[in-house]
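User: Now give one protein:

AI:
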Amino acid sequence: MVWGRIHCCLFKSKLILLLFLTSSVVCVFGQTRGELEEERRKIEEEMELTSQLLEETKESAETNLNQLVILNNQISRREELLENIENKISVINHQIENFTQDIDKLNEELEDLKDSYAEMIRHAYKNRNADHRLMFIFSAEDFNQAYMRMKYLQQYAHHRKLQAEKIEEASSELEERIAELEASKNDQQDLLAEHREELTMLTQEKQEQNETLNTLRQREQALMDELSQQQERAQQLSNAIEEIIEEERRRAAEKAEAEGTATPTKAFELTPEEEIISENFHENKGSLPWPSERGIITQRFGEQPHPVLPGIKVSNDGINISTTEGAKAKALFEGTVVRVFTTPGGDNAVIVRHGEYLSVYSNLSLVMVRNGQSVDRQEELGIVSTDPRNNQTEIHLQIWKGNEKLNPAQWIVSR
């Protein structure tokens, strides 16, 4: 009897521990799977946009550089999606392993419990006669012993009932684990099939990438001419920004000279309100909104290798973001429009000042703001231009602090 009670307690403790460990593993890996699902959602969202942009560029009369850049981006996202699927498969494999171990342990405990219960049933069968139970009680040496024997019989009956309940509980838990195991195996098979499909798509895209690259290499001189024009426009835009900074510095110096004070060391002389805006702009580094509602970065900051021309570096003072036709350009942060002007290519640019910082938005077909106008965060500045030659809709974004050119990708929120 004592052994039966100890066995029941031990089983109960093991079962609780097993359930706790299993639920903990499921919780941890459930969270991991949740993170992977969110990552996948973002990848697929960008791939959907990339596919749309790719279709738009394919509407142009000839294969163009933008088509290759977007295709490269699509391939990168496809590879990220494949990695995401592989990570999910690994998580599910681990779950399957844990479920299998749980099932083995539960089976072992259930068998022990059934053996113990069978022993009690045999004992009860041998002592099923009511006269035997009464004789067991009345043969006691005194009243206390008789009372203890009666309590023993009651507890024994109660314990047998508990054992039956434990068998039912363990059987139910075992069925749940088996169902979870089967569900995980089905998920595993679905993901493996999806992985094969994505690999096929990746192979097709890489083949298209090679064909596009070969076609563009046959137009090397045209690409060189296009690059030269881009660099000329970029230099003129940079000159315009530097002129604004120099003009502000000159005004600050003239004011300081008239007032007999020291010449300011910063590029801009800031009012107390502008100081606050400048500090807030800096504090929002990495969380500023994008200058367009949707988009992908198709040219990064600094020197980058040309996607087609070998040995040629492309210098960029900001980042280029490809977006959909008709997209609006939006201010990154509150500030004041300090310059609206037309770029050499015939498009427009807007420069917004945020204290000692400047944000620059170029390649706009239409401007919606004017010089001296105060703008709020995400206020519309204009419409992004679409190049009719290649159906490319691209906004160029720069961020400056004084004369220092900053990488905008480090300031806008990561997608």
In short: Residues 247 and 301 are 26 Å apart (CA to CA).
